[in-house]
C-alpha cells in the first residue's frame, strides 16, 4: 500500500516539474515586435534618418510604413519605444517614438512596414488611449 502512495507521489512530482519548466513569460502575438516601455531610451534617442509614411492600427498591432536610404534594408533594426508616462486626459495619452538603426550606406530609398504589439501599454482602467507618435501625429487605440 505504501509503494502505491509513493508511486503516485513520484508521478505527481514529475508532472509538476514538467509544468514548472514551461515558460510562462512567452507571449504570442500577430505583430512583428512588441512596444518597449523605456523612458531613458525614449529621451536619449533622436535619429531622424527615416520618414514615417503611413500608420494604421489593426486589432492590437500598430502598423508603421517607413522609408529610409539604404541598400536593401535587411540589416535595419527597428524599435517602438514608449516614454513610460501616462498623460492624464480623457482619453489618456501615451508618447511613442520609433527608432531605426540603419548602418547601410547606399543611396536607394527603401520602404518597409513593421507592426508593433500595443498590449503592453494598455491600462487597466481605460479602454482607449491616444497615441502620440513622434514624427507622425496622434492615433486612437481602442481595446
| Number of domain units | 1
What's the shape? globular
Predict the CATH topology.
Immunoglobulin-like
Give the total of beta strands: 9
CATH architecture: Sandwich
Please compute the radius of gyration using only Cα atoms.
Answer: 22 Å
Strand order of the largest sheet: 2-5-6-8-9
Distance between the termini: 56 Å
Q: Could you state the order of secondary-structure elements as H and E?
A: HEEHEEEEEEE
Q: What proportion strand?
A: over 45%
Low-pLDDT segments, ≥5 res:
3-25
The main pleated sheet reads as: 5 strands, mixed
Structural class: alpha/beta
CATH superfamily: NigD-like, C-terminal beta sandwich domain
Question: Helicity, in percent?
Answer: 10-25%
- CATH class membership: Mainly Beta
Q: Count of helices?
A: 2
Quick check: average pLDDT?
85
